[in-house]
């Protein structure tokens, strides 16, 4: 998979690409990352990339001409002229679809005005051949670049950053790790927060019953490793007894418990069994009782 990043701060990414999975994926030839300095596509001695906004207001706006030239330099035509790729629809309902047919390339503007970037969007983007990421700065990018060239506008959260570089790094990392071959264990991403439903996972190891549990869009369960006891806290006994079915049940309860505590909104769309709903009812009653006791204390 190929990533092209357009930015006024190309040095921002140098350290990021030299460590961990990103470095290994590039060394193994699974991912290619090219960073383009937007100022190289300016034509004045000050290398100007921004100007005052029409209509007045605070701040500056990124000019359209350098961005258009940078995109064209990496082979991106305007959307009206771009050849559509295979008309394969995205697999996820909460996906990175746009109004155009599915194509193997996406041009993405990182912006606080964009749609939320989620794990489902990352799974969709990981199916691409190429992604071009535009890092906005100042008050934003001239909207005509968005209208002419961008397939998708993405935000990594409900807050404002100084620029799109951090967001581009997040999107690249979350997407790249889903590309086949990038992770050492291909099943790793199946058993993470926001992962697929347990019924969609068929991974088994030589017939050993699976003790993991797919999150189905919820949060992951807590993890423990050696030593079994650390500073007076002991690993839950259920994880030490070797009973895979008990471990699976415990992990499911912990997924539900953590999601209820930290992200109850995720439960609205989660794939819950009748047993899950019973566990949640008990957990909610327990939380209510705890809150009542605390208020009376």
Structural overview:
α6 (244-262) packs across α7. This protein has 297 residues and is α/β, with parallel strands linked by helices. Helices cover 29% and strands 14% of the residues. It contains seven helices and nine strands. The longest helix has 23 residues, at 274-296. The N and C termini lie far apart (58 Å). The strands form three sheets. Strands 2-1-6-5-7 form a five-stranded parallel beta sheet, with helices on both faces.
Number of domains: 2
Give me the count of strands. Answer: 9
Q: What is the overall shape?
A: elongated
Determine the CATH superfamily of the largest domain: SPOUT methyltransferase, trefoil knot domain
Which secondary-structure class do the elements indicate? alpha/beta
The name of the CATH topology of the largest domain is Alpha/beta knot
CATH class of the largest domain: Alpha Beta
SSE order, one letter for each helix or strand: EHEEEHEHEHEHEEHH
Keywords for this entry:
297 residues; alpha/beta; Alpha/beta knot; Trp Operon Repressor, Chain A; two-stranded antiparallel ribbon
Topology (elements, then pairings):
Layout: E1 2-7, H1 20-27, E2 32-37, E3 50-51, E4 61-62, H2 64-73, E5 105-116, H3 119-125, E6 130-135, H4 143-149, E7 152-155, H5 165-176, E8 229-230, E9 233-234, H6 244-262, H7 274-296
Parallel strand pairs: 1-2, 1-6, 5-6, 5-7
Antiparallel strand pairs: 3-4, 8-9
Helix pairs in contact: 2-4, 3-5, 6-7
Summarize it.
This protein has seven helices and nine strands.
